[in-house]
Amino acid sequence: MDYNFLKVEKEGGITILKISAPKSLNALNSTILKELAHFVDNLDISTRVLIITGDGEKSFVAGADISEMANLNEQQGYEFGKLGAQVFRAIEVLPIPVIAAVNGFALGGGCELAMACDIRIASVKAKFGQPEVGLGIIPGFSGTYRLAKLIGQGYAKEMIYTGKVIRADEALRIGLVNATYEPEQLMPAAMEMAQKMLANAPVAISLAKQSINENYDLDAEASLELENKLFGKCFATRDQKEGMAAFLEKRHANFTGE
């Protein structure tokens, strides 16, 4: 499929996805969301790390497309929100690491897209916010769910109720992002992180991600049981045998993802 609003680059086992709608600062409309859904559903199986960023210097994703939302009725609003939530959930449960390289504005749907990724790193010029209440709506692409999980209810409620926009240094302080970089260093830092992931066992990373994601809402006993089960599954992989043999033999492991 040829995409109108997505740019895809590949480098080894790393795929870089750029949201590209410069006239609207990469704002998400239903067409872009459907392109994202298709991309995720058809992601090249050779991809071992996905990096998502925005095209251009100003914006990661400036939000959802207000011009499309303005005249929606209740049912249409529900369907639009559900589309975004489903796409972002599909990104969240991909069996590979997903890094958000936030290069500029990450507001509303942009902040929600970043939160659906495993790890967020940001340009020092990036800005984050959930300003939806100023438009008479609430975050609709799982923002009320993920923001509170990531930074705690207190900070999440303050950001959502006030609609305030925060800078990258504040996002770092409250744990919304892992690290900040000068703009020209952002993508090299994302690639360096991705390369470190490539050096490790793909199946183990996938199972670790599954354990972390599914533990999100479980009580302690169910969470520990899930982790134990997935830990055990590692021992049915060739990568586990290779990784431990390499350690004992004092050599670098050669992981194959099996």
How does the SSE layout of this entry go?
Elements: E1 6-11, E2 14-19, H1 30-41, E3 49-54, E4 59-61, H2 66-69, H3 74-92, E5 98-102, E6 105-107, H4 109-116, E7 119-123, E8 127-129, H5 143-151, H6 153-162, E9 165-167, H7 168-173, E10 179-181, H8 183-198, H9 202-215, H10 220-234, H11 238-248
Parallel strand pairs: 2-3, 3-5, 4-6, 5-7, 6-8, 7-10
Antiparallel strand pairs: 1-2, 8-9
Helix pairs in contact: 1-3, 3-4, 4-5, 5-6, 9-10
Q: What's this model, at a glance?
A:
By secondary structure, the protein is of the alpha/beta class.
Give an overview of the whole structure:
With 258 residues, the protein is an alpha/beta fold. The protein is 48% helix and 17% strand. The protein is built from 11 helices and 10 strands. The chain has helices at residues 30-41, 66-69, 74-92, 109-116, 143-151, 153-162, 168-173, 183-198, 202-215, 220-234, 238-248; strands spanning 6-11, 14-19, 49-54, 59-61, 98-102, 105-107, 119-123, 127-129, 165-167, 179-181. It has a 6-stranded mixed β-sheet, with helices on both faces. A 4-stranded mixed β-sheet has the order 4-6-8-9. Strand 2 (14-19), helix 1 (30-41) and strand 3 (49-54) form a beta-alpha-beta unit. Helix 1 (30-41) packs parallel to helix 3 (74-92), helix 3 runs parallel beside helix 4 (109-116) and helix 4 crosses helix 5 (143-151). The longest helix is centred in the first third of the chain and has 19 residues, at 74-92.
